[in-house]
């Protein structure tokens, strides 16, 4: 056989083009994009007729929490590497990047990475990379970053400006930013002011306001905008070190990001479906039901949703990730209900584990909303993630001879499934979906990972195997030539920084 798999009658979409091509796949790679019809009679082991449906690079979800210890006490996030990646392929995602969490009492990052490899190895249905999650940036951790980047294939890490168990001081953030600049590592920042939200939480509790909806009151938009602004300021202090603001929900934060980008600063941003589809009203339900939508930052309002969609269309947000971090609802041992006690029948919002399941619904829900062009959809759900996290063009593209044959094929207009979502349709290990009952117009019909059909919705569903997913060693980010621009700025120079600070102070005084 000339090909292992041929896809005919597809409308191929990449981040830059839409065109009808037949796709020939050989040895796990895209081998050829041929004029439509040309491969209809080619010699191939397997043939898929896309019937006019879209064929695009598989989804890349670069913000996924699997088997992570809960910051709220008992247990860990609900999905394992097995169930989480199974859910990913059923929703058209072929590569995830999850987190390898370092605990505050641990000094090594390599140990955290190795521990997470043990959880993932042999368990995954899709390909996977890892970000470090740094909570203790001491000398040992910092000294390991070179090896982590150059040998372990980890070119990004995440830090927190909130959560007592993880929060870093500005001092520690500067230490991380400088080390990341030297090693060309992208710093992902969870920007919420932890001290402010702890203070507001105590005030709400003093007034006996415990219900899930008060999670939203404890985290008003200004607290996200303030931390976002501070993160951008700290990045500029370290000679414009690239950062990515994760899970941005607030238009105020978005405008600040946009402004920094306009000034040429290497500030990237991510948003998530929860900020496109959920609002504060979803937290404001009778009893404890609102806990199903408790995540941080919290869902905002409808006007805010519109501005977040706009930020995706106009490029303020480079990536749309799931921030999949589920906790079971009806589980008093390790799930959302751990905070319900005799004295607190509606729980205490401050103890509700934060995070929701979204790994499987990210692509179908966003695609179905059709609020952006289909090329833009591929850009923010796949291609930009590949570029930002050092996987392009092996991932996130359809370049013959170069790109892995990771593809998602959608139903054509004439065969759209028109789904009303129920949790039973999903493949995660969670007992609810925050999108329960929503109308979803289309769904991935096939998911293909390195040339192998792993999801066939009409014939067997999950047809891939646990363990077929491989670890992806990642390289330096290429999105917007970000590190070339950093190199142009030259070495980080502390004397220059002090000199500039003096000038800035003088200017401030003159004003
Ligand atoms: O609520 C959220 N987002 N939980 C997941 C952890 C994080 O901050 O990303
Ligand atoms: Zn976060
Ligand atoms: Zn997260
Ligand atoms: Zn309907």
Automatic annotation (TrEMBL):
GO cellular component, one term: cytoplasm
Single annotated GO MF: lyase activity
Positions carrying N6-carboxylysine: 158
Superkingdom as given in the UniProt entry: Eukaryota
Modification(s) after translation: Carbamylation allows a single lysine to coordinate two divalent metal cations.
Ranges where the Amidohydrolase-related domain occurs: 54-454
Family, per entry: Belongs to the metallo-dependent hydrolases superfamily. Hydantoinase/dihydropyrimidinase family.
Protein name, per record: Amidohydrolase-related domain-containing protein
Organism: Thyridium curvatum
Full-protein interval shown: 5 to 515 of 862
